[in-house]
Amino acid sequence: MAAEDSHAGIIDDLVRRAGVVMLVGASNTGKTTFARRLLEAAIDHGRTTAFVDADVDQSLSGPPTCVSLKYVETRSDLDDLEHADALQFVGSITPECLVLQHVVATGTIVHRARDRADLVVIDTTGLISGVIGQSLKYHKMEMCRPDIVVGIQSGGELEPLIGMLRRFFSMDVEVLPVDVHIAPASPEDRHAHRAKLFAEAFAPPLQRWRVRPTVFAPTLPAGLDLSRLNGVLVGVMDGTDSCLGLGVLEYEDDILRVQTNTGEGMRGLRLGSLRIDLITFEVQRVRLREVMFGLD
User: Fold this and answer.
1) Does 235 score more than 70 pLDDT?
2) Cis geometry, peptide bond prior to residue 218 (ω within 30 degrees of 0)
3) Do 173 and 207 sit in the same domain of this protein?
4) H or E stretch including 40?
5) Residues 151-176: pLDDT tens digits?
6) Is 56 left (phi over 0), alpha (psi -120 to 50) or beta?
7) What domain range includes position 83?
């Protein structure tokens, strides 16, 4: 049976069963394409559906560095996936740097989605192997408690992860081959896509808000040289543990500011683990321990 035919069969079954569906697989295996097809089928069957985008690098909904929620109830919602209904800030494009933050953000969004949707579709990153990849997926299972896991693989790369999930959890697990029509994205394509998403997240007009050192999480240590924060990515928070959008810190003339287009309603800023250039949208990993305390 062709891969796309087997995908069609499981998609029909998932729509009928509803619940929380988590997609796992390496990069370039078509998880996002599968998610879109599942959402489209759910709309056709009248399901109330939510899409949780936990891919903090190659986002489909919301900006990179965030886990996003999009309610998908009509065709127009499906055509507007990039505009998320809710965000949880993680602060990195590489989940291995911030496993705890990534797991908590995904669990928080899924919990919120369950309250409104009878089918919740979770797209995840391509990190599936090694201690970090397996730990990330294990703890996401603990937090999200999906009813069904759909693994998509090109060979046997998912077998260690799938074996672990079946051993420790009771959810159903379906393993599918990669759709033969999936065109893999090159590293250059992924880089360009990420830069495009950041450019959209920082679309003009940007405002520059003066901020006090007391508004940050984690809290800034006394005596910190604030120039170390220049260029650091932040999540703009609304005071209810929800993220309004992204910002970038700027230190100039002994004044600390945040540049953002989502400053209205800002109550605090969460420090990310990246520096970002608002001209090229290139990013560089930041170790907050080193920024805060000069430690490795």
Assistant:
1) yes
2) yes
3) no
4) helix 31-44
5) 999 999 999 999 999 999 999 999 99
6) alpha
7) 3-183
